[in-house]
Amino acid sequence: MLSFDEARRQLLSRAFAVASERVSLGSAAGRVIAGDVVARHPLPGFDYSAMDGYAVATADFGPEPPWSLPVISESAAGRGLEALAPGSACRIFTGAPMPSNADAVVMQEHVRREGAVIATDARPRPGQHVRRAGEDLARGAIALASGTRLSSGAIALAAMLDRAELTVARRPRVTILCTGEELRAPGDEPRPGSVSESNSAAIAALARQAGARVRIAPIAGDELGATQRAIEDALDATDVLLTIGGVSVGDHDVVRPALERAGVTLDFWKVAIKPGKPLAVGTRDKIVVLGLPGNPASAIVTFTLFGAPLVRALQGDRQPLPLALPVRLDSTRARSPDRLELVRARLGVEGRALVARPHDNQSSGATTSLASSDGLAFVPPGEGPLAPDALVDFVRWSDV
User: In this structure, are residues 301 and 244 in contact, taking their beta carbons and an 8 Å threshold?
Assistant: First the structure.
């Protein structure tokens, strides 16, 4: 068996760069930038006031207070402006451009105004309450680096840089193929021994969260030839093929031989994790194939920690791995001597610490603990149990 870290490293090494496309700024949320976004002009584009008050030239202030200046002009946001006349003040509002020759703003709370004259006892400093052109970004600076996943803040910055469109990575195409004679679509008429197929909808949701465009193929049974044909159909026009179920070594587990017959080269198929040990990884040409185990917890856990990072890496995401939070366990935890255990748990706060509270039911088929957990606690292998308050990594479903 490969270790968790080595298996994920090998998988991500197979990620290739998908093509790019132009999208409108309004539809760019969650997409990954392909190529640096460079500032074509400084940001801010001009000097402006950070306060309501009066723009002045500090050279007009003599050695001793109080100082008085006539107010002979006004600057408001969105208007053009002439130069400040020597020995005068300009009424100015937050966001309004600074008149040339002015180098400071005196807050309105710090002046006394009588008619068209202001008086103040506080000497202004050059640059006081002024935001300078280029203070945030100089012209030619990289505003958003290639590989950045676009948050609302990044979209705001792109808009400030006057970009109506951005070049982003195409959404990777992910095809999901569930296998098993016992499976039927949710809502279909039950038949003896059948179960409602739950993996495709859940994994499709996680794949879309990671940026994929998802296609769900018809359910395949447990006959080798039919499964091979289903795989060959699913490999058409996709970047990632996810098969679910049938990758172990039982008499009815036909997915591995069917993959090989379909021309997929399998690189490994066992990882030292619990749940999810029978995870198969392979390729055909540039298509990456993940054979996920069929039990719901196993399938969702393995996609979360392997499939979603792959989808992100295909987009050139600079941070394809989910954020791992350091958390304390709330109780003693037995552990495997040789496998990393991925424990479904709730996340809480005690004092200033994050605390993971594992569910009692960690069965690989239990969807109840999937539904009511916040994510996965990583319990490392070793001899003897982990004590309460032991620090472990935690990955939230929302960070996938």
Answer: no
Query: If pLDDT is split at 50, 70 and 90, which confidence band does 255 have?
Result: very high
CA 44 to CA 96: how far, in whole Å? 12
* Spatial distance between the Cα atoms of 366 and 18, rounded to a whole number of angstroms: 35
pLDDT in tens, 94-120: 999 999 999 999 999 999 999 999 999
Average pLDDT over every residue of 266-280: 93
Please name each of the domains of the chain with its CATH number: 4-18+171-314 (3.40.980.10), 22-41+138-169 (3.90.105.10), 48-131 (2.170.190.11), 325-399 (2.40.340.10)
Which pLDDT value is given to residue 250? 58
Average pLDDT over residues 143-165: 97
Tens digit of pLDDT for each residue in 51-99?
999 999 999 999 999 999 999 999 998 887 789 999 999 999 999 999 9
* Cis before 296 (ω within 30): no
pLDDT tens by residue, 220-252? 999 999 999 999 999 999 999 999 998 766 556
Dihedral sign for Cα atoms in the order 253, 217, 322, 374? negative
In sequence order, what are the beta bridge partners of 291?
243, 280
Is the four-CA dihedral 91, 94, 95, 100 of positive or negative sign?
positive
Determine the Cα–Cα distance for residues 180 and 200; give it in Å rounded to an integer. 13
Ramachandran sector of residue 71 (left: φ over 0; alpha: ψ -120 to 50; beta: rest) = beta
Q: Residue 22: exposed, middle, or buried by beta-carbon count in 10 A (0-12, 13-18, 19+)?
A: exposed
